[in-house]
Amino acid sequence: MAKVFRSPARHGYAVEVSPFIPNRVACAASQYYGIAGCGTLLVLDETETGVALVRSWEWSDGLFDVAWSEANEHVLVAGGGDGSLQLWDTNNHSAPLRVAKEHTQEVYAVDWSQTRGENLIVSGSWDQTAKVWDPALSRSLTTLRGHEGVIYSTIWSPHIPGCFASASGDGTLRVWDVKSAVCRLAIPAHKAEILSCDWCKYDQNIVVTGSVDCTVCVWDLRNIRQPVNQMLGHAYAIRRVKVRISKPLFMSNICVCVFRFWDLSRNQPLLDTVEHHSEFVCGLDFNLHIPNQVVDCSWDETVKIYTPACLSAATHSTTP
């Protein structure tokens, strides 16, 4: 049974579970579906009886993505429709700690690096650039250009320092080397816009993409001539893909109101289809602390925390 938090007149774009606090979730949401109006950043705690609001902040433009600091349990960064990144602190009730505004269009993606000894933020924007920042959000450290369409997703490699992947409306998946400020790989991954990408957490060579063409592709960066796996069956664009940290590989992707959970180690990889929203589902995260728990947010003004039956069943079936 899902626990539900309702955010009236705020349409969810992204959720992320805290890397420090097992029951804490951040959600970036926008008014009027992100087309106009302001944004709200929500910090929520799962309780025994439901989901409680810990803190919320208003922003003057829509908010499209959020990422927790990997070094400070109180700090998080959000990306806004006004081209800004804002650094927020859950101990500060009023204003952001810092605002950086170098992008000239919407910031649609933010991510905080997870590799040891590195503490960096990457942002991806509709201005077709990605920028790398230090955690204080002072002036950006580097700006990376190469995409010929808007950037929808920027994700740090969990394995390789100074390396991130980006997905764009130009149909390419790109892998970047921050130190050299160059694009190492440009993969024509789909013949349509790519809305999301994610790294596999236990194999540094595997990246997953989701596209407007209604397919999910799994790429091995050592051989990019064709995907190692392609998942069909969606009727709508894939808004978000997420790879769970486990073996065998479980993957979830989202389109209109629908989740599909896939286990790529199986001959028939589709585990389950979940339909529990009435609008676009835009945000998804797996809880690293609580096995099999999933958090999502939707344009139907809700954040839901739950454990899909297919994940717990699959886990049991793979246990010796």
From TrEMBL:
GO cellular component terms, semicolon-separated: cytosol; peroxisomal matrix
Q: Which GO terms describe its molecular function?
A: peroxisome matrix targeting signal-2 binding
Quick one: where is this thing mainly located? cytoplasm
Write out the annotated subcellular location.
Cytoplasm, Cytosol; Peroxisome matrix
What processes in GO biological process is this protein linked to? protein import into peroxisome matrix
The name this protein goes by in its record = Peroxin-7
Spell out the family assignment given in the record's similarity comment. Answer: Belongs to the WD repeat peroxin-7 family.
Native organism is: Amphiprion ocellaris (Clown anemonefish)
List UniProt keywords, sorted A-Z.
Cytoplasm, Peroxisome, Protein transport, Repeat, Transport, WD repeat
User: Matching InterPro entries, A to Z?
Assistant: PEX7 (IPR044536), WD40/YVTN_repeat-like_dom_sf (IPR015943), WD40_PAC1 (IPR020472), WD40_repeat_CS (IPR019775), WD40_repeat_dom_sf (IPR036322), WD40_rpt (IPR001680)
Q: Which PANTHER family match?
A: PEROXISOMAL TARGETING SIGNAL 2 RECEPTOR
- The protein's superkingdom reads Eukaryota
Where the WD repeats fall, as residue ranges, is 72-98, 100-143, 144-180, 187-223
Q: Does the keyword Transcription apply?
A: no
Q: Which SMART domains match?
A: WD40 (SM00320)
Q: Which residues cross the membrane?
A: none
